[in-house]
Amino acid sequence: MTIDKQALREVAEKATKGEWWSDVVETDGEYGEGEDRVSGYHSYAVYVGHESLLDMINSTAACIHTEWDHDYHMAWDETAKRNAEFIAAANPATVLALLDENIQLQREKDAIEAVVLALRDDMRQVREQLAAAERRKADNQEPAGYHVIKECGKVGCSVATLEEAEKTRDFWNKKWTIRPYFYTAQPASERERIRREHAEWSDATFGDVGPVGPLKHLSKEALEAAAEPGDLSEWADMQFLLWDAQRRAGISDEQITHAMVEKLAINKTRQWPEPKDGEPRLHIKEQPAQVVPDDLVKAFISAIEKEQDRLFGEDYLMDSKDCVDVIREEAQRLNSCRASMLQGGAK
């Protein structure tokens, strides 16, 4: 509903000034017809000071014929009472105060919108200035290195200087191109945007599946990245798959960070072999104890050799030497199995 506030203000300003109030009116008037006719029912009036503005406010529809007071008068008309109280409360002073408050709120709203528009313009200018500064910085910044790009678009290798890049290109294929790269980190907000966009695409493409698939795919991409460490597309695929597996496993960044802190502390306590480029990083593990001690194996074999005539008769298919060899091989197998199990559990 649209309210004509100006018209409402004009009629409120013309109305009687002062404090409005309502009260019951005692009357000897008659109400109803025939046998239902009664006299002395109650009504209401609205006053300003001692002057009556509205008399005989009543609602015949709300009168209750079956209710009477102790003087056998009809019960008060509650609807008339409520209407009189509302009219007295919604007096000209109240209406004008509400209209003034509405004007003040509109002024405050207009002022806030003006500030928001000004801030929006300021933020746009700041973003443009930051972008220009980043461009100037990139123009003046020395490259961190150079990628030698194959004809297929993949990175063939990465070298530190332009001279090395040119020599590499000329040696392999002069049609390859050279592209500098810089150590300028992406803004966190942009990285998070890409992360959200990839999550939406992954859900729409692969559906509601668990983390095992992305992790298996991650191992494949890791081998491809190991074969071509300079290919940034392989690094991007590994990051996407790691994000996807983590999200589908329900693991938060905070949980990963906590686990990294604990794992780093463990790694610092371990012993590591001399580093070799291109070799997996495996820490030095303690040698596991043998399942069957050597002394026990030797004693068992010696006992068999002493009793071979009694233990191995002519009808026995295996002689004592073969039996000793079998025992020795079985002891070695058990020790190897235990060592493998311990190494697997220590990863």
From TrEMBL:
It holds the Pfam family dATP-dGTP_PPHyd. Keywords: Coiled coil. The keyword Coiled coil applies. The keyword Coiled coil applies. Residues 109-136 form a coiled coil. Residues 194-288 form the dATP/dGTP diphosphohydrolase MazZ domain. This is DUF550 domain-containing protein. It comes from Salmonella enterica subsp. enterica serovar Java.
